[in-house]
Amino acid sequence: MSTLFVAIASMIGFVIAYHTYGRFLAKKLFALADDEPMPSVVQRDDVDFVPTDRSVVLGHHFTSIAGTGPIVGPALAVFWGWLPALLWVIFGSILVGGVHDLAALVISIRNRGESVGQAAGHLISPRAKLLFLIVLAMALSIVLAVFGLVIAIIFKLYPESVLSVWTAMPVAIVIGYFVIRRGKNLVVPCLLGLGVLYLTVYLGAYRLPLDIADVLPTGSTYATPVVVWTGLLLAYAFVASVLPVWLLLQPRDFINSLQLLVALVLLVVGLGVASFSGDADLIASAPAIASEIPADAPPIFPFLFITIACGACSGFHCMVSSGTTSKQLRVATDAQLVGYGSMLGEGMLAVLVILACCAGVGMGRLERTVVDGETVITRDSTMASSSATDGSASWRSYYRTGRTVAASAEVGAGESGDAGVQADQSGGWRKQGLDKKLGAFIDGGANFLSSIGVPLKMGVAIMAVMVACFAATTLDTATRLQRYVLSELFTSAGFTLGANKFVATGIAVTVALLIAIFAGDAPGKGGLLLWPLFGATNQLLAGLALMVAVFYLARRSRPIAFLAIPMFMMLLMPAWAMTFDLVENWWPARDWVLVCFALAVLALQFWMVLEGVMLWRREKAFRS
C-alpha cells in the first residue's frame, strides 16, 4: 500500500497547491485579469500568434514541457534512493518550477509575446538580453541533440513504437486543417484520432514493428539506426517549425495529450491494483535513501537538483511559456491553469516515474526471447520484490550493475549498441546506459499495466509510445523556439537573412545534427557527449529567468520574496554542480568540449548576474 499512498498523497498535495498557492500567485502577485489585451489577439497572424481555446493550449504546453526530461531525470536520480527524488519533485514543482513557469508566461503576455530573453533587455539591460539569448541558443542546441537522440534510442530499442509516433503526424494535420482552422468542435475528431493512434500501438506491438535496422547495410559507420532516426526526426522538426502552429503543432500536441492522458490513467489504475494486491511494494522494491552509491557518482548535493530538472523545475519551460504558449493564450487568467497547472501535472508524472522505476521494477525484470520468429516478452518473477531493505534484486539489476536490463542483450546498455556508453570521467554516471534508465520506466510501467490485464507486450508498446510522443512534441517545439532565438540574434547582429524562418530553422537543425553525428566518440553519440551539461545549463537558465521575473515584480513594487528565494537556489545549485564537474571530471580528463562549454555558460551566467546586481544597486540608490 505504500506505493498507492505516495501516489494519492502527491496528487492531493498538487491539487491543494494549485487552488491555494497557484491562485495566490495568479490573483494577488501577478494580478491577472480577464480583460487584459493578449498578444494572440492584438498581433494575430495565424502562423505564430493564434488565439486558441485553453484546452488546446493546455495540451500543447503540457506535452511540450513534459518531454523525456521528467522521465529520464527521476529515472536517473532514484539511484540515490526514491525519497530524496520524491521530495524534490513535490516541493520543487510547487514552490520553484510552477512559479518559474507562470512568471515566464505572464511576463511574455505583458510584453507583446516576447521571450523572457527579449524581456530581459527591457527589464535589466540590452547586454542582458544578448547574454540571455546566447544562453538560450546554447541550451536549445543541447535540447535538440539530446531529445533527437532519446527518440532515436526508443525507436531502436522498441520498434513497436515507431508506427504510432509517425502516424500521429498526418492525423494531426487532418484535424488541424478541418477542425482547428475552421473552429469546429474538437471532441469527436480527436477521439477518432485517438482511436487511430491506439490501433497503431496494437499493430506496432503485434503486426508491424518497424525495425529500421532490417533495411540498413551492415557494418556502416553512419548508417546505424540511431543516426538515421536522428536525421529523419530533425528533418521532421524542420517542417514542423516552419508550418503554422494550427496545422501541426497544436493538433499534434492536443492529440498527444489525450493519448498520454489515457496512458497515465492506465498507469495509475494499474499502480493501484498492483499496490492493493501487494505486487507493487515501494518500501521493499528499492531503498528510500541508498546506502551504496556507484563509485563514479557525484554527491547528492547539488547534483540531485540538476539531475531532476523537468518534473521539479526546468529552464526549458520558460522558453515554451514565453516562446509559443504566450502567443496562443486567449485570456490572461488561463495562465494559472496552463503555466502553473501544467508544471504540477509534470510533477505528478515525475512521481509516477519514480514509482514505476522502483515499485514497478520491483515486480520483476522483463526479458525478451524470440520464438518462431516472433518476440515474446516475459517477466522474471525470481527477481520480484522481496523483504530486503536495500532494494530487490530486480531494482539492483537496473541501478547497481553494468548488465543490461531491458528486454535482451541485443538492446543492452553500457556495454554495446548504438546507445550504450561506458562510464568515464566526463560525468559517465549520467551517460551510462541512457537506454537502461528509459527501460526501467518502460518496464516498470508495463508491470503496472499487466496488473489490470494488459499483456506485457502491449504494455511495453504503450509505455514506449508514451515516452517517444512526449519527446517528439518537445523536439518540434524546441526547434520552433530555436528559430525565434536565432532570428532575434541574427537581427541584433544585422544579419537579416538569418532572421528568415527557413534559414534560422535550417541552421538550428543542422547544428543539432552535426552535434549528434560528429561530436561524440562515435556517430550518433554526440547528444550523449553534451548530456552531462544538459541539467546544469537547463537549471541555470531557470535561475536567470527567475532573475528577470524578480526585476519585473520590483519595477511594479510587488513582493519579490516568492521568486527571489527560488532564484537564488536555481542560480547556486547548477553553478555549483557545473563547477564541481569542471574541476573534478572534465578538466582532469582533458575533455575540452565540455570544459569550453562549461566555462562559456558560467561566464555568461556571471556576466548576466553582474548586470542584474549593478542595475539593482542603481535602482536602490535612485529610490533612496
Layout of SSEs?
Layout: H1 2-29, H2 39-42, H3 54-65, H4 69-77, H5 82-109, H6 116-123, H7 126-157, H8 162-180, H9 187-206, H10 225-242, H11 249-277, H12 282-285, H13 300-307, H14 316-323, H15 335-360, E1 365-371, E2 374-380, H16 393-399, H17 428-431, H18 434-450, H19 456-492, H20 501-518, H21 526-555, H22 561-586, H23 592-623
Antiparallel strand pairs: 1-2
Helix pairs in contact: 1-5, 1-11, 1-15, 3-11, 3-15, 3-19, 4-15, 4-18, 5-14, 5-15, 5-21, 5-22, 6-7, 6-21, 7-10, 7-19, 7-20, 7-21, 7-23, 8-9, 8-11, 9-11, 9-19, 10-19, 10-20, 11-15, 11-18, 11-19, 13-22, 15-18, 18-19, 19-20, 21-22, 21-23, 22-23
Which descriptors would you attach to this protein?
2 strands, two-stranded antiparallel ribbon, 624 residues, mainly alpha, globular, single chain
Q: In what order do the strands lie side by side in the largest sheet?
A: 1-2
Sheet with the most strands?
A: 2 strands, antiparallel
Mean pLDDT: 84
Share of helix among residues? 55-70%
Rg (C-alpha, Å): 23 Å
Strand content: under 5%
**Structural classification:** mainly alpha
Order of helices and strands: HHHHHHHHHHHHHHHEEHHHHHHHH
Coarse shape = globular
Number of strands: 2
Beginning-to-end CA distance, first to last residue? 59 Å
Low-confidence stretches: 402-429
Note the total helix count: 23
User: Oligomeric form of this entry?
Assistant: single chain
